[in-house]
Amino acid sequence: MSEKTAPQTPAPVPSDHIMGVYSRTPLAFERGEGARLYTTDGDMYLDCVAGIAVNALGHANPRLTQVLKDQADKLWHVSNIYTIPGQEKLAAKLCAETFADEVFFTNSGTEAIECAIKTARKYHWARGAPERIDIIGFDGSFHGRTLAAVNASGNAAYLEGFGPPMPGFVQAKFGDLEGLKALVGPTTAAILLEPVQGEGGARSWPDASLTAIRRLCDETGTLLIYDEIQCGLGRTGKFFAYEWAEDAAPDIVAIAKALGGGFPVGACLATAEAGRGMVAGSHGSTYGGNPLAMAVGLAAVEELAKPALMDNVREVAGFFTQQLSGLKDRFPDVVRDIRGRGLLIGIQLATPNREFMQHARDQHLLIAGGGDNCVRLLPPLNLTVAEASEAMAKLERACEAARAQAKATPEKVGA
Q: What is the band of 415 on the pLDDT scale with cuts at 50, 70, 90?
């Protein structure tokens, strides 16, 4: 397939009226199909970003597209004043596939995190321990952009300019179990973590550590919250990433991204015990769980839960792992480490990651940035081995370009 098609519409002119919070690349896409994206100029790119792990079933997935069209002809929105049958169906499906007993639907991942935090604190309040409000998070984490979410993450760059740190949030060091134990005390409500960090450089918690954290929570009456917004819903080859570990089930999980396959929807899942404080009036959302989102979400979850898709994730992830190991051996001056799990893959670089992303775009390959000078591969979960092989060929050429640039500008090596 050619990487160039006939131009269709002119590229848009950047607007002076968009709030300047994004550092965008000068690419504008007008259509997609599977793992391919097509620009307004007709160029084709292999997409290993998938909307930052959102388009888990690829672009313009036929089933999701048809479900959305069918629902759009019936009913868009009524609000949570009324019973929404689609919520009942999707919640039942999510609970059947997971640890959860109940679900609250949101419009985004950060809203799901907000609900998780409120649920944890209200749980202790309902048990007569209102002083237990502290949420322990970890360095390198990313939980969203609302004030509670950025305080839970503790990233100074995201907190700067938004006032003093909020009380009730404590940061632990990633991987330091002894340090974590020392932080858990009489005011601790919950431990919040991503089983595989996304923005933080695709760092994966060891399975034994998740089991140990679950045990710590049981011993101290602390709730365990997993943020599976990026790593969940099949991305690691299991429905949830924590499922690779034994006896590590959470009390609460926040999900979004792949849940709608591109349509904005999120959810907070909880056990009945963890959700005991969330009674009528405790929380709410105008748009959350509307008929459009529920129709698409149900179709997406039904597809994501299929064993054949999980098998494909594991097969393609195994191919990437093998091939990336070889790439690291051939380009040790460019690639320092391979991280992550399943199809949440991190490549830690010896050269600046933003420059490497441009080298990849020059090869018509889209990859995502990440912390700790990493880039991430977050392709659709139905990516084929042939497409993965195509991505590897493009990555190899990007490595060659990065090596050549590093030799020409040696002061940037290791930046």
A: very low
Phi, psi of 252, rounded to the nearest 5 degrees: -145, 140
Q: What is the pTM of this model?
A: 0.93
Question: DSSP string of 24-51?
Answer: --S--EEEEEBTEEEETTSBEEEESSHH
Give the number of domains in the chain: 2
Residue 30 resides in a domain:
no
Are residues 86 and 180 located together in one domain of the fold?
Answer: yes
Q: Which residue of the set 104, 105, 138, 142 is catalytic?
A: 142
Residue 143 · residue 156 · CB < 8 Å: no
**Beta-carbon count within 10 A of 211 CB:** 15
- Give the end of a domain, one of 282, 304, 326: 304
CATH number for position 294: 3.40.640.10
Clarify whether 329 is annotated catalytic.
Answer: no
The string of pLDDT tens digits covering residues 143-160 is 999 999 999 998 888 899
Q: Which bin fits 373, alpha (ψ -120 to 50), beta or left (φ > 0)? A: left
Give the H or E element holding residue 344.
strand 344-349
Residue 263 designated active-site: no
